[in-house]
């Protein structure tokens, strides 16, 4: 049906009115066209041309046990090391380069992700413009404390949701490609998982940086910028870890959208914004330790209102920290739990992905 080089598949099929779809595997497209059309129609359209390639005589390498055992022939210009299994770092490096190429081609998707971040960040910045520039030691500044707190929480929620949603949908969408390449022993699960993690970590950092460059200064937050950036990044990475676990558990991207409430609603319910966690029934209270927003918010509260609460003559900030059960001495614990959630959910996602792959094949 086609005897030319790989790079000419697109032009060859386009000339015969079968253009290769964007981001489509050429081999899959050849198989799809062959299955959908009759041989007579394909011959009429100009397929099955004579093989004009100049190939060296095929041989069976005597020293290659792998090729001999499989009965596969190779040409003289193919070295044996091309058939050897590559190391872990090599697989990660190659897969990461492919992720870079994929994202560079997906300009609309990546552009929409950052455009939405810029729009929502600007909207939050306009609504909460300079609410953080208040002296809460003065009586007239007390009323703005809740607005200041609300602005900070909105920034945290935006960083969590904006980074987790694309990650949740990406794993089910790319599952067929992963299963096909995994079944043909192109790579193992761990290198694939690590390459995705490296790319997600970079894009998440850029997205959080764009978000904070807009909202931090428009809202007038009092925290150290880089300290707040570290908190936002830790929260975002923990949230994407939950999204990865859910994404690895489902097979259909449409089904993944059904899990969006499961990803976000518990975070809001157990964070302590709507009800104190000590008022939640004991048999449900344990779930707060699975919600990254709880500990991200406590770290943000300490960073934003810690200095204000330390002043003996100022009470509103200290009351705010007390109401949200925030303790300065427990800051290392908050950080530890936040990153422990990241590691735990990532490992769960890895286990689910491996199980799904081995079960399918």
TrEMBL record:
ABC-2 type transporter transmembrane domain location: 91-304
Major location (coarse): membrane
Keyword ATP-binding: no
GO molecular function: ABC-type transporter activity
Membrane topology, as annotated: Multi-pass membrane protein
Domain of life: Eukaryota
Keyword line: Membrane, Transmembrane, Transmembrane helix, Transport
Membrane spanning residue stretches: 110-131, 151-171, 197-219, 225-247, 259-276, 333-353
One cellular component term from this protein's GO annotations in UniProt: membrane
Compartments in which it is found: Membrane
Name this polypeptide is given: ABC-2 type transporter transmembrane domain-containing protein
Organism: Thalassiosira oceanica (Marine diatom)
């Amino acid at each position: 049906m086609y005897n030319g080089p790989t790079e000419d598949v697109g032009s060859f099929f386009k000339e015969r009115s079968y253009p290769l779809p964007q981001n489509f595997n050429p081999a899959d497209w050849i198989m799809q066209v062959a299955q959908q059309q009759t041989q007579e129609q394909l011959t009429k359209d100009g397929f099955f041309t004579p093989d004009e390639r100049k190939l060296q005589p095929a041989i069976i390498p005597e020293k290659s046990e792998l090729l001999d055992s499989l009965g596969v022939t190779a040409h003289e210009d193919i070295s044996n090391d091309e058939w050897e299994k590559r190391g872990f770092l090599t697989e990660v490096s190659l897969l990461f380069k492919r992720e870079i190429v994929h994202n560079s081609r997906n300009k609309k998707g990546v552009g929409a992700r950052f455009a939405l971040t810029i729009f929502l960040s600007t909207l939050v910045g306009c609504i909460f413009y300079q609410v953080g520039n208040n002296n809460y030691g003065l009586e007239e500044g007390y009323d703005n404390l809740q607005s200041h707190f609300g602005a900070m929480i909105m920034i945290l929620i935006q960083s969590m949701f904006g980074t987790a949603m694309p990650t949740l949908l990406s794993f089910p969408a790319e599952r067929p490609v992963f299963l096909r390449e995994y079944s043909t022993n192109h790579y193992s699960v761990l290198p694939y998982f690590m390459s995705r993690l490296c790319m997600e970590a970079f894009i998440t950092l850029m997205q959080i940086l764009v978000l904070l460059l807009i909202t931090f200064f428009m809202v007038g937050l009092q925290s150290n910028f880089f300290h707040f950036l570290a908190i936002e990044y830790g929260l975002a990475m923990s949230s994407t870890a939950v999204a990865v676990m859910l994404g690895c558990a489902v097979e259909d991207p449409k089904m993944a959208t059904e899990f969006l409430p499961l990803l976000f609603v518990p975070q809001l319910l157990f964070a302590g914004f709507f009800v104190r966690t000590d008022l939640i029934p004991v048999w449900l209270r344990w779930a707060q330790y699975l919600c990254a927003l709880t500990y991200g918010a406590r770290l943000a509260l300490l960073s934003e209102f810690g200095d204000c609460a330390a002043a003996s003559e100022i009470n509103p900030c200290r009351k705010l920290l007390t109401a949200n059960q925030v303790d300065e001495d427990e800051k290392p614990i908050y950080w530890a739990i936040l990153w422990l959630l990241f590691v735990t959910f990532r490992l769960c996602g890895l286990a689910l992905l491996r199980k799904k792959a081995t079960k399918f094949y």
